[in-house]
Structure formats: structure tokens, C-alpha cells
Design brief:
The complex is a heterodimer of chains A (627) and B (306). By secondary structure, chain A is mainly alpha-helical. Among the domains of chain A are: 1-193; 511-549, no CATH class; 550-623, no CATH class. Helix content of chain A is 71%, strand content 4%. Chain A has 26 helices and five strands. Chain B has one domain (2-304). The chains are: A mainly alpha (627), B mainly alpha (306).
Chain lengths: 627, 306
């Protein structure tokens, strides 16, 4: 029922690292929750069920814990269900997660031959006999990516994560999404190996799209928790880029590069867990003090909340992939593995991968912009609302939670070789090559890329150099004994106030305008002009709202199509019993035909014949003659 | 080792001189009486003696950020390719780390802009974020392309390799990468046509807007950072895209290198005189050209092998 191989243990470590600081934070947050028993019960079950998912050894246990994880997190979103928004978000999450669950169930029913108690080990044989392995791949992909939040199944994240209580958002975004990544590692390696080249390309494309789309919508977001949720989409994208590169290299028989790329993906999984949990905790503390999620109502919080501000800064630097942070190291590894694409034999693939490099680099640049916005508007400048003015530092337990998570972030930066050693063991356990000796050939100070002519980075030397130079400069400044005067910021003769500052909307303005074709924002501008002058006005109000493209196109149009189709069927039937009967007959026919195709054999001749039979029977029995 | 330290010292000393040189050349070409090329040092010493005015609205970030803007750039100085044959160079740092360090410096500069609660700071930060986000992909792709021609991703090693075995077979992709990198040099250093370093008109400024609330030593630090950044990019361009002269005797090689830096500065000045500043929303077109050239460079390398 349970297994404890290296992959499981590494993910147990991930969950423990993510959950322990969260426990402190959660107990600090508890006084603010009304339904305490409900919250506590689901919170602990949620953590235990995640642990259960990663250690279960057969399909039944896996699905049981997976479902328990989904249901408890769904209930946790509903902890503070006061607004309709929350209930809608929870409903959306419930539907999306079960959409994925259906595909997982299908996947397991096929690879276990109907006996769900089959262990993972014996699935490989059954899957190898199945005629359409790509179908299995897509079932698995839909199942796990709907949970991980990759394009196009990412739409629920920016709704569900902000509505949950902050410790839960941190757990959901930081840890639960990673459990889906665990699923991908487990079943792609144990069950569906070896992979055709196309699978890797599919994952690479999904990853590149997710990373770009995630960061672009994060930029246009004003709800700080939704912003972070969009960044989760981005980071899952980055993980998938590493994963996809690993699969591509493996199917092109470049085993060393493949292991390197998978290690990069695992490393980024850990890093994202650490800094995203920390960011959600920081956002939660800010929300706790200001009682609003709107980033435009913050400002100047660094003065009132120094600990939160410091930890949030460290996490921001890390998520923006700036050296020498851990986020930089994993993104560096993913870049290096992509540069390894010059070893591929396939010219078209070689030419395609620079586009993924472009996507990843663009993501990095936009992430920096986004976190300057998130940090600058939240913590710097003047307070933009009275709530922000009266904010003060959060309680001891919450601070402890944040500081512990900072320690996790820093440990991932300082003890990179140690963690990479773990990931290397995982890859070895999954039957891949060990590359630890190639990443750290002589000492643990320098990290080498395994690609020929690859790069080298030495995180600790960089960190030391940066700290040393900064300290030296600050010491020199102190030694100069410069005279300092405090004065107001110059505001062109006007008084500097909260209203003279840039807003988050304004900050993201140039980028929003450049990507106007994607955002298609709804803008509302109303101003009261003075005496008919266009340019003189006493008050003005500007609001911009961006509805995600995927939601507007894919989801809404699917809804519309379902409506149209059901109306058509409704009109056809005309409440006539014969028509109903004919429909049921056709449905049975479809099921029989598709069962034959799936379970037995496929030949174009019978396929065409069946198609013709279906069309005739629909035409004759259901549609009938035009009256 | 001695050449290594000496080069860093020379580059640090040259940094303010190069920017003043650009300014003087521009003024000369516009029939103005040129400023002295030593104006940079004069400004520096003047600012060092002034008292610092710190904004009441600002936070601890204002007191820390200037140092964090300068220090990644100073660290980068130690990782540049050698200018003299056989000189020591740091082999373990690759181009990604360098671009990362430069981004780190920009990150804190943008935070600095937002810290003083002034509209100008936010405006500058917002624009800088926009430009920096578009520079990043072009930079990474150019680096990728150059690393393949040089046969190493490490900056120091790449410089040496290019100088020793110039990739004659890959002249086309080398040229494309060079064009792309030059555009990035202009964009990252905020020169015309991307940003006008001399303007104090709020509609056009990017870099100046972010540092509007700084004076005294802090301003001196930021100005130094700007000049150091220019010298970093110029010397990267000189080592990677003008890779000759490394084999001469030490003084000659050093002189040649300094000459190359001045040639790059002159090229920047000529572009500044001959073009108008682009509107902010036209800047992506220019950076798009850089991205396209970087892609072209990769494609020619892969497909034509040229």
C-alpha cells in the first residue's frame, strides 16, 4: 500500500519543509478564523493527505489520497465563505479538480486493467501492451496539469488561491501544486517509459506558454494573492520547461543532459515551494493588517512591518531569478539544459528550442518587473489608505513562520550541492544516469553545466563577493561621516502625498499597453470636467480590468457551445417519444463503435463504414425531413 | 594576477572619462563648446563633498539600495575577459551570471525609484521595468549564439577563445550577434534612442527619473554605477566582438583595448547625434530588432553554418 523510495522521500521532504513553517504561521493566523474546528480538521487532513499521495504504492490509495487532498483544500477555500465570490471560486476549483480526476481515473483504469489495487510496479507491463500510449499520456497530462495549473487548465488558480485563508494559499500554491509534479515524475518514469519525442515537445510547449501567460496576467493583476497565484502558473511553466527538455533529451538518447534537465526541474520545484510559500505568507500578513487584497491600498508598509518586508524582499529576489538566490540557480540550470539543445541531431528541433529560451528569458524579465511592482507598491512609498497607515507587525507565531520559511529559502541557496545530491539520487532511483559528479566535478563551490562548452556558476562565491563589496561600500560611507539632512520629497512645488505616487496600474501601464492585443482590457474613465475644458477636471476615476484570454475564449465558448448544442437537441426531440428513443439508440451505437475501436482494433475501412452508418441513422431517425 | 587587477583599476578609472568623452564629442559635433573630458571626475568629487538630503517619505531601502546597485556591477568587473594575453581571468563565471548581476543592480535601482513616493520615481521605474523586460530575451539569445561561436559560455574563456581562434567560418552569425549586442548596449545604458541621459524633462526620462531624489554621496554612487555599467558593456563588446590584439605585448594590448573602448564610445556618440530619441512605445521595435538579429544569428549558425 505504501512505498518509500527516493522519489517519494524527496517529496515527503518537500511537503515537510513546506508544512512546518506553515504550521507556525497557521497557528498565528488562527485567532482570525471563525470556524476554528472546521479549519483545523481540514488543514491537518490536507497536509496528511498530501503526504499520503506521495507515499502510496497502488492506484487505489493514490486516488483516495488525491481526492481527499482535493476535497479538504476545497473545504479550506470555503473557510471564510462570506462572499459569493468565494463560493464561486470554490465551485470552480471543485469542478476543475474533478475534471482532472476523471482523466486520472481513466488513466488508472487502463493501466491497472481494472484492478485498482495493482501496485505501480506492475503497471508498466500493462501500459506497454495498450495500443494507444499517447492516449494514456494525455489522460495523465490532463489529470495532473489541471491540478498543477498549466495552460490551458490554469484558470482556476487566480480565483481559488486568493479566497483561501493565507496559510492555506501558501500550502496550496507552494506544496499542493508540487504533488501534481510528483505524479508526473512517478507515472511518466514508472509507467509510461520510454517516451516518444513528441511527448517531450508537448510538455515543453505547455511549459513555455504557461510561463509567459502566467507572468503576463500577474502583471495586470491588482489583487496581491491573485498576482502570486498567476506567478504559480509561471513557475509551474518553468518546471515543465525543464521537465520537457529532460524528456526530449531522453528520447534523443542524450542521457546525461536528460538527467541534468530533470534535476533542474526538481530543484525549481523545491525553490518554488520555498519562495512561493514565503510570498503567500507575506501577502497574508499584509492582508491581515490592512484587511484588503487590493495592492493599490497598500504602501509604506516597510516602516510598520520590517520583518515581513525583509522576508518578502528575499523571496522577491529569489522568484525574480536574480543571483545569487536559489531561484536563479534553478533557472540557470534550466537555461543550461536548453543550451544543451545544440547537441541535438534534429535541425528543426534545434531551431525550435531557441523560442522556448526566448519565452523563458522574457518570463524572467517580466517577473522582475512584476516583483518590483508587488514589492514597491506594497512596501515602499507612502501609505495609500488609512488601514495601511495603522498597520503594524504581525504576531510572533506568524513572524516565526515567515522566518522559518526564509531559512528554507536560504538553505536551498547555501546548500545547493546537498539538495542536488538528493535529486540525483531520485534520478538514479528512477533508472536514469547519475550526474552529480559532473555538476560538481571537483569541489562543491562551482556548479558546472553538463553540456559541452556549458557554463559554470559558483553561488557561494557570488554571495560572498556581493556581501563583501556591499559591506565595504557601506563601511566606506560610514567612514566618510557624511552630513545628512531629512527633507520632504520634491513634488514640483506640490505637497508630496500618497496620491502623487505611482499606482500599480500605472506601473504596469507600459507593459499593459504593449500587450494590449493579448489583454484586451476593459477601461473605464470618468472625469468631471471644469467649464467644458477637456484637460481640466476636478475629479477623475480610472479603472482597468483584464479578463484572461483563456477564460474569455476557451471556457466561455465551451459553455456557449454546450448551450447551443443542448438547445439543438432539445428542439430536435420536440418531446416526441420516438425521437427520444432514436437518440438513445444512436448513443448506444456510438458507445459500441468507440468501444470496438478502443478495445479491439482500428482500421480505416470499418471506421469509415461506422461513420456512414452513424450519419445515416442520425439523419434518418433523429433529424428527419425538413418540414 | 597583476594585469588582472591593473585592468580592473584602469576600467574603473576610465569609466567616468568615457561618459564625459561621449558628452564632449556630442557637443563638439553640435558646434557647442565641449565640456572637459574630466568633467566626470569633477562631478564625482563635488558630489562626494556635498551633504546628503534624504527624503522623509523614503524608507531603509533608500539607504541600502544605492550600495546594492553598485556592488553587483563592481563584482561583474572582476569577471570580464582578459585584455592582455596570459593574464589571469575568472573562468568560472558564465554570461548568465553576468546578465543576472546586471539585472540585480537594475532591480534595486527600480525599488529605489519607488521608495521616495514621488511620481517621477515611479514613472522611471515603470519605464525601466518595461525596457529591461524586453532586453532580457535578446540578451540571453545573443549570449547563447556567441557562446556557440566561442565554444564556451564562460565570459572570460569566450573572450580568449575568440581572440585565439576567430570563427571565420561563422562570420555572418557573428555579425548578427554583434548588431544585437550593440543595440542592447545602447538600451541597457539608457542612451539615445532609448533614453536621453542628459534630459531633465519628465516626459522623456527613464534613468534620471528614478534617481531624482538623490543627492550627495548617494547620487555619486549611482552615477558611478551608471558609468561602470557602460564600461562593462563596452569592454564586453570590445572583447567579444572586436577580438583582436590580445597577442601583442602587454602595454600595446592594453592601449589597443582602451582605444577600442573609445571607438565604441565614439560610435555611441555618433548615434546619439544622428538619431532622435524614440517614443517609449517605439522602443520595443528597436529591441525587437535586437531579438530578431539574435534569432537570425542562431539560425544562420545552425542552418547555414555561417
Amino acid at each position: 500500500m505504501f512505498q518509500f523510495d527516493t522519489l517519494s522521500l524527496v517529496f515527503v521532504a518537500l511537503i515537510v519543509l513546506g508544512a512546518v513553517p506553515n504550521l507556525f504561521y497557521s497557528s498565528g493566523y488562527l485567532p482570525h478564523i471563525e470556524r476554528k474546528a472546521h479549519y483545523q480538521l481540514h488543514y491537518f487532513t490536507f497536509i496528511l493527505s498530501m503526504l499520503g499521495v506521495v507515499v502510496s504504492a497502488n492506484a487505489l490509495a493514490f486516488l483516495l489520497f488525491w481526492e481527499l487532498m482535493s476535497l479538504t483544500s476545497w473545504q479550506l477555500i470555503l473557510t471564510e465563505a462570506k462572499e459569493k465570490k468565494t463560493i464561486d471560486a470554490a465551485k470552480f476549483y471543485f469542478i476543475m479538480t474533478h475534471f482532472g480526476f476523471v482523466f486520472l481515473l481513466l488513466f488508472f483504469l487502463i493501466v491497472t486493467d481494472g484492478d485498482l489495487e495493482t501496485g505501480f510496479a506492475s503497471m508498466h507491463g500493462i501500459a506497454a501492451k495498450f495500443t494507444y500510449p499517447t492516449l494514456l499520456f494525455f489522460f495523465m497530462l490532463l489529470g495532473f496539469l489541471s491540478k498543477a495549473g498549466a495552460v490551458p487548465l490554469h484558470v482556476w488558480l487566480p480565483y481559488a488561491h486568493p479566497e483561501a485563508p493565507s496559510p492555506v494559499s501558501a500550502l496550496m500554491s507552494g506544496v499542493m501544486l508540487k504533488v501534481a509534479i510528483y505524479g508526473m515524475f512517478r507515472f511518466l518514469f514508472d509507467v509510461l517509459y520510454p517516451w516518444p519525442l513528441e511527448w517531450g515537445i508537448v510538455i515543453l510547449v505547455i511549459g513555455s506558454l504557461s510561463s509567459l501567460i502566467g507572468v503576463l496576467y500577474a502583471l495586470s493583476e491588482h489583487d496581491i494573492k491573485a498576482l502570486l497565484a498567476n506567478h504559480s502558473i509561471e513557475n509551474i511553466g518553468i518546471i515543465l520547461i525543464g521537465f520537457g527538455m529532460g524528456m526530449i533529451f531522453d528520447s534523443m538518447h542524450l542521457k546525461v543532459l536528460s538527467s541534468f534537465a530533470f534535476i533542474a526541474a526538481l530543484f525549481h520545484t523545491f525553490n518554488h515551494m520555498s519562495f512561493k510559500s514565503l510570498l503567500f505568507m507575506g501577502a497574508g500578513s499584509v492582508l491581515h493588517q490592512t484587511h484588503t487584497k487590493n495592492i493599490e491600498k497598500y504602501g509604506g508598509l516597510i516602516k510598520a512591518m520590517p520583518v515581513t518586508a525583509l522576508t518578502f524582499l528575499i523571496a522577491s529576489v529569489s522568484i525574480s531569478a536574480l543571483p545569487p538566490s536559489n531561484g536563479f540557480l534553478s533557472e540557470w540550470m534550466i537555461f543550461q539544459s536548453m543550451l544543451g539543445s545544440s547537441h541535438l541531431d534534429d535541425t528543426s528541433l534545434k531551431l525550435a528550442i531557441p523560442f522556448a529560451i526566448f519565452a523563458l528569458a522574457m518570463t524572467g524579465g517580466l517577473a522582475i518587473a512584476c516583483f518590483v511592482k508587488a514589492y514597491g507598491i506594497t512596501f515602499l512609498g507612502l501609505h495609500r489608505s488609512t488601514n495601511a497607515k495603522h498597520a503594524h507587525e504581525v504576531n510572533f507565531l506568524m513572524r516565526t513562520g515567515m522566518l522559518l520559511m526564509t531559512a528554507v529559502v536560504l538553505s536551498l541557496m547555501l546548500f545547493t550541492p546537498f539538495y542536488i545530491g538528493w535529486f540525483d539520487e531520485v534520478l538514479k532511483g528512477l533508472g536514469h544516469l547519475s550526474v552529480y559528479a559532473k555538476i560538481f566535478p571537483d569541489t562543491v563551490w562551482n556548479m558546472h553545466s553538463v553540456a559541452v562548452h556549458g557554463g559554470v556558476v559558483s553561488p557561494l562565491v557570488l554571495l560572498g563577493a556581493l556581501l563583501g563589496v556591499t559591506a565595504l561600500l557601506m563601511f566606506a560611507y560610514k567612514a566618510l561621516k557624511v552630513k545628512e539632512r531629512i527633507h520632504h520629497t520634491w513634488g514640483c512645488g506640490y505637497r508630496t502625498s500618497a496620491k502623487t505616487q505611482y499606482t500599480a496600474t500605472g506601473f504596469a501601464g507600459p507593459i499593459r499597453r504593449f500587450f494590449n492585443w493579448l489583454y484586451k482590457p476593459e477601461e473605464h474613465l470618468c472625469k468631471e470636467t471644469l467649464a467644458g475644458h477637456e484637460s481640466k477636471f476636478s475629479s477623475s476615476h480610472y479603472e482597468v480590468h483584464v479578463k484572461p484570454l483563456f477564460e474569455a475564449s476557451l471556457y466561455d465558448s465551451v459553455g456557449k457551445a454546450a448551450n447551443v448544442l443542448s438547445y439543438w437537441v432539445y428542439r430536435l426531440s420536440h418531446f416526441e417519444q420516438t425521437r427520444y428513443a432514436a437518440m438513445i439508440f444512436n448513443l448506444v451505437l456510438t458507445v459500441l463503435f468507440s468501444y470496438r475501436i478502443f478495445a479491439h482494433e482500428f482500421s480505416w475501412a470499418t471506421f469509415v463504414l461506422e461513420g456512414v452508418v452513424m450519419i445515416i441513422s442520425i439523419k434518418v431517425l433523429i433529424i428527419g425531413d425538413k418540414k | 594576477m597583476i594585469f588582472y587587477l591593473f585592468t580592473i583599476l584602469i576600467l574603473l578609472l576610465l569609466a567616468p572619462l568615457l561618459l564625459s568623452f561621449i558628452k564632449a564629442l556630442k557637443m563638439y559635433l553640435l558646434f557647442k563648446k565641449p565640456v572637459s573630458v574630466f568633467q566626470g571626475y569633477r562631478n564625482f568629487s563635488k558630489l562626494m563633498q556635498k551633504e546628503t538630503v534624504i527624503s522623509e517619505e523614503s524608507s531603509r531601502i533608500t539607504r541600502v539600495a544605492p550600495f546594492l546597485v553598485l556592488s553587483p556591477l563592481l563584482v561583474t568587473m572582476f569577471f570580464l575577459p582578459p585584455v592582455v594575453h596570459g593574464a589571469f581571468y575568472v573562468s568560472f563565471v558564465d554570461a548568465f551570471t553576468l546578465t543576472g548581476l546586471i539585472s540585480l543592480s537594475t532591480f534595486f535601482l527600480m525599488l529605489l525609484g519607488l521608495d521616495s513616493a514621488s511620481a517621477f520615481g515611479g514613472m522611471g521605474s515603470s519605464r525601466e521595468a518595461f525596457i529591461a523586460a524586453l532586453v532580457e530575451p535578446a540578451m540571453v539569445l545573443t549570449v547563447f549564439s556567441v557562446s556557440m561561436m566561442a565554444g564556451d559560455l564562460g565570459v572570460g574563456q569566450a573572450g580568449v577563445n575568440l581572440a585565439m581562434h576567430f570563427p571565420k567560418a561563422h562570420m555572418a552569425s557573428f555579425l548578427f550577434a554583434g548588431i544585437s549586442f550593440f543595440i542592447l548596449l545602447i538600451a541597457e545604458n539608457g542612451r539615445i534612442p532609448v533614453d536621453n541621459p542628459e534630459t531633465h524633462l519628465e516626459l522623456t526620462m527613464v534613468h534620471e527619473a528614478m534617481i531624482l531624489d538623490l543627492t550627495g554621496v548617494y547620487l555619486a554612487i549611482i552615477e558611478t554605477a551608471a558609468s561602470v555599467k557602460f564600461v562593462i558593456f563596452a569592454s564586453l563588446f570590445a572583447s567579444l566582438f572586436m577580438p583582436f590584439g590580445l597577442q601583442y605585448a602587454a602595454p600595446a594590448a592594453m592601449l589597443l583595448f582602451v582605444l577600442k573602448l573609445f571607438i565604441i564610445a565614439a560610435a555611441v556618440a555618433l548615434i546619439e547625434v544622428n538619431t532622435a530619441k524614440l517614443r517609449l512605445f517605439k522602443v520595443p521595435n528597436l529591441l525587437g530588432i535586437a531579438i530578431v538579429f539574435a534569432f537570425l544569428s542562431l539560425i544562420t549558425f545552425y542552418v547555414l553554418g555561417a
